[in-house]
């Protein structure tokens, strides 16, 4: 078909002003799916719902795949299933180790057993029927003399002393009155100071639900002297029984026995008076009550009749109080409550209902500390240096921390706190460092307040989490901190402390006080396993014993958060509880004792419970060899050391460098002899030059007659 084109045709280009602006919705025509007409309602809504469901499902699937990939790429810690089952003590209810690592104390349903931590041989036993030990703690109070603090299932707190492979009962702190209708007072908590100077016991009246804290002073030095006397008397009695048995065997013909020797006049009465077949039960000096602390009462209206009488009860205001004495009447408080309910009537229904039956009972947390600059003037005693002189107490659900002096002499054991520390949020946990310098307080707001007790200043506030409260705080061993030379050479001092923090969601953080850095050690969001219990390994301060929610035992490096190894119990055995497992270290961290339990069914379908005590030899684990070989300085002194510590350190260093000083003195004397020879040679040379100069000047002088 022919096509005719016109010649000499010109096209005028359009002007820029006539070009239409690009429409923002032009991409819809580029996308092929947008060329279709939108579906009408309600199908459009259904389409959006389906798309959102698919997107959520796809994101959920992607997260699962990412976690699986991360777990596959994660370096797995070695697993050790070399637990040794003990043939006895399978019904252990509590475990603890001695401070020096020699022994392990096992609480049983009928007493206490002491075993060697390395050989597992039984050293001593204390038996008593129907005494199920629920809690046991050991303190070193002398040379191989240990104080045992126990609480049984009946809520009775007892003190024991262990020395020379013998266990003796010291005192029953809350002995019950065996009478019908008598008030029953049980103990819910009992803790002693580190060296056994004081002990605190929390008592509860079961009939009235009243609870209070009692602090007792323990006659530690007196107990040590009495224990030496008891051991000597036991040796004398055993020798006497052996002699009587030998004489009875020799005199079988006439069946005569030698009479026992009577005590010499003027000797003190013996602590042991035994009859044949009777157990030794010596009488020791009882502890003395020092202080009794009751929980804080809720703030109520003032009962004063006038403003003047109310002001007389109020202190001068120099010390922060608890807010109990004020001039606000109860009528004013009731009106404020009614006004609040009226203004927020529509929101009051969303408040949780008060459950008085399941209301939490206030429990105290207390720490025995030494004197510092926070101690009020007049309560310091130089003779008590290094010993606890103050107790810090706070109660569950309150935001005030109280400090009481243990040296006050008063007939009334109930007295007011010397210092009250208010905090901006409810206190959830607290701890003190091993040197007694730092005090860390965890709050419900997710913050940790760190105090320097030695200087009496607040060191800082650590913002850990804004969503979760603080569950646990713990100071790590100072030997893992960096060693710096401070203004007091030549001894090493630790200018930093490491604080382990655990939040309510079981996430873990480590805070360095010198660098003011917070390092995330473990977060639950990034891991499937939830860790419930954290405990430092004695002998290896860099390691933590971690118990997970699925009953797994892990050893973790606290410096980098990596799992070092995993401990596996035998088949069909699990921990007694992932929240409160029964375990203890021994031999300075070389052994780990763990109680495992299992349940099975017999042929008739009845459930059979079985429990056993297992031992792990941590010293034989290859993954821990590097930690055992790592050098550590256990003599690191804190930043704020005393004058005696500085003088002793300087004297020790002076004695250590004495051979080097002798060598330097000998070298210096040799150098002085050489220098003296050089000086003498210089003097002789100078004299010679001086004499030659005088002679030359004499011959060169012109004669007077020459003129």
From TrEMBL:
It comes from the Eukaryota. Residues 238-285 are annotated as: Disordered. Residues 238-250 have a biased composition (Low complexity). GO terms for biological process: electron transport chain. This is WD repeat-containing protein 93. It comes from Patella caerulea.
